[in-house]
Design goal:
single chain; about 375 residues; alpha/beta; Spore Coat Polysaccharide Biosynthesis Protein SpsA, Chain A; UDP N-Acetylglucosamine Acyltransferase, domain 1; 2 domains; 7-stranded mixed beta sheet
Length: about 375
């Protein structure tokens, strides 16, 4: 079985702005837990405790939490890239971590997934491939956001399309950014060059008549590349569509941290997650699905519907949120109704609608 993994964690996540202005994409919280931590815990389930990542954008936030000794008891190492070198170029920089002849897994640092790694490994070994890609079938209408992979009848990869229009797509199978590799893969990646798997490495393998196979997974997978995909993934956790271990106490209304403080008059209609050290005052109403971060204060009479709130946020009396995402360290003063589908970035003080409408981002 696989013993080591590499996580591609260097991306800036610009399509997630303003959420990623102060947080790298792998550290974006899903139900108050960084995506990267979900990935690390998932790898541990399959006996993978030796992990390396490449970092670049706001790298310290990753290294400070998981580098060296960490609460997960995982051997987490990293390679800092001053300049990005592409998906394959970043993996090449971690070659020293993998012993020759050993199989390893590479996974994208923005993938929320419960993929069965053991089953993927078995398919890889059965095919005798140098590389196996995990693919996911999606509606043909959505392929323009992804890299499409074309297979023959034996599940061998024969071609690629990068974000094709639906009418031009040759397949509705998309690249998840999860790969099983033999260490021979490194001979296809030159050192210190910008190199991409889909554009450079995989076409070279096919041209050289080497074996590149794919396995279509039935498990949950979502690339959290856009704000809309991020929200869908977060709500999918609440609705049980993805199998993840939650660190909170489960209740009939969702999950609540033991250190949170909820008034007895709080009303829940739907499922919610309430983070550590959060206080929710009297007569607050939650509708549909909501995620409330750590150390937040939700003042009396607030109405929260289908929204995601990050850490250290203060929601004033009688504030109304509808399908919103609020980043960390935001204060919304009393009585404000935030426009539906709004995204408010970090460290904002909202005293009137004009405080966020001037640079409003929509989901």
């Amino acid at each position: 079985m696989i013993k080591k993994a590499m996580i591609m964690a260097a991306g800036a996540g610009t399509r997630l702005n303003p959420l990623t202005i102060k947080v790298p994409k792998p550290m974006v919280p899903v139900v108050n837990i960084p995506i990267l931590e979900f990935i690390l815990k998932h790898l541990q389930k399959f006996g993978i405790n030796d992990v390396i990542a490449n970092t670049h954008y706001i790298a310290d936030s990753i290294q400070n939490v998981y580098g060296g000794e960490n609460r997960l008891n995982i051997n987490f190492q990293y390679v800092y890239e001053p300049e990005l070198t592409g998906t394959a170029g970043g993996v090449k920089k971690t070659e020293f971590f993998f012993a020759p002849g050993k199989t390893f897994i590479v996974i994208s640092g923005d993938a929320l997934t419960d993929v069965n790694i053991e089953k993927l490994y078995e398919q890889h070994k059965k095919s005798g491939a140098m590389a196996t890609m995990a693919l996911k079938e999606i509606p043909i209408s959505e392929v323009a956001n992804f890299g499409v992979v074309v297979l023959n009848s034996n599940s061998r990869v024969v071609g690629f399309q990068e974000k094709p229009r639906p009418e031009e797509a040759k397949s509705n199978l998309v690249n998840t950014g999860i790969y099983i590799f033999e260490t021979d893969i490194f001979k296809y990646i030159p050192a210190n060059q910008f190199y991409d798997f889909a554009k450079n490495v995989f076409p070279a393998i096919i041209a050289n008549n080497e074996s590149l196979y794919a396995y279509v997974i039935d498990d949950y997978w979502n690339d959290i590349g856009t704000i809309k995909q991020y929200k869908y993934s977060s709500l999918d956790v609440l609705n049980g569509k993805v199998k993840l271990d939650m660190p909170y106490t489960e209740t009939k209304n969702g999950w609540t941290a033991n250190s949170s403080n909820l008034s007895g008059s709080v009303v829940f209609k739907g499922r919610s997650v309430i983070g550590e050290g959060t206080t929710i005052e009297e007569h607050v109403k939650f509708s549909e699905n909501n995620i409330i971060g750590n150390n937040c204060i939700i003042k009396a009479g607030a109405r929260i519907e289908n929204s995601i709130i990050w850490d250290n946020v203060v929601i004033g009396e009688n504030v109304s949120l509808d399908n919103c995402i609020i980043a960390s360290n935001v204060k919304i003063n009393p009585g404000i109704s935030v426009e539906e589908d709004s995204v408010i970035g970090h460290d904002r003080i909202i005293s009137c609608p004009e405080d966020y409408l001037q640079d409003l981002v929509k989901i």
